[in-house]
């Protein structure tokens, strides 16, 4: 069986795209882990599996490198839109896409589909929706002690779950220390993505990210939406913000109705064919 794949990145957050219309590969957790492995496989922060054509439109599945499935991925949605454009699936520059975390609206902003804007929907801080254990409440600046230090966490779902911690100083090292503990904390029954947030001014924030099921990443679209939404809810920023990440910047705009618009680049990296030997060994 020949398995062709595509590789894209968005600000250094890299994904493999596997198209079920072009390959019959069955994506077990073991195969997902192998393909995403940076030494034994192709290497990536996840797999975008689609398009699946259903009556209501185009559907996408998002798979984390540990074999788990995510409800949404902001960078993933932009990369997948670019793939649909590059491979001739798209007729229009605007379309809706369905993810397990909800419908998003995509707008391709340039002729080469290298800049893409997405309406990611609205954020909820409701603990039941995120989910966060304990009584139903909005999780805003709640105390949580991690590795003997007290933090104020704000949690929300933008389709997938996020925990945002505002701090005066952030670093990759701190994200890598806190990330695994918070991701797997009993407070979060579905685990959680973590953003360390530094507010630079009312229209600029900086984040370090630990992604659920993926670990430390250079950028994340849903994390940018979550960090901006949390910062806005905490009164720290205005509605339009530039999010600076180690891999580059995204623009996030939160409308009066609550919709979160994310605008940012996508880069095509390469196309390839998997070795049959690789697959027969897994
Ligand atoms: N990189 C993504 C987020 C991917 C999903 C995440 N790891 C999760 O499990 O929710 C993005 O750009 O949003």
From TrEMBL:
Pathway: Amino-acid biosynthesis; L-lysine biosynthesis via DAP pathway; DL-2,6-diaminopimelate from LL-2,6-diaminopimelate: step 1/1. Substrate binds at residues 13, 64, 74-75, 160, 193, 211-212, 221-222. It comes from the Bacteria. GO terms for biological process: lysine biosynthetic process via diaminopimelate. GO terms for molecular function: diaminopimelate epimerase activity. Keywords: Amino-acid biosynthesis, Cytoplasm, Isomerase, Lysine biosynthesis. The keyword Amino-acid biosynthesis applies. It is an enzyme of class 5 (isomerase). It catalyses: (2S,6S)-2,6-diaminopimelate = meso-2,6-diaminopimelate. Gene3D superfamilies: Diaminopimelate Epimerase, Chain A, domain 1. Its main location: cytoplasm. The record marks 162, 211 as: Could be important to modulate the pK values of the two catalytic cysteine residues. GO terms for cellular component: cytosol. Catalyzes the stereoinversion of LL-2,6-diaminopimelate (L,L-DAP) to meso-diaminopimelate (meso-DAP), a precursor of L-lysine and an essential component of the bacterial peptidoglycan. Homodimer. NCBIfam families: DapF. This is Diaminopimelate epimerase.
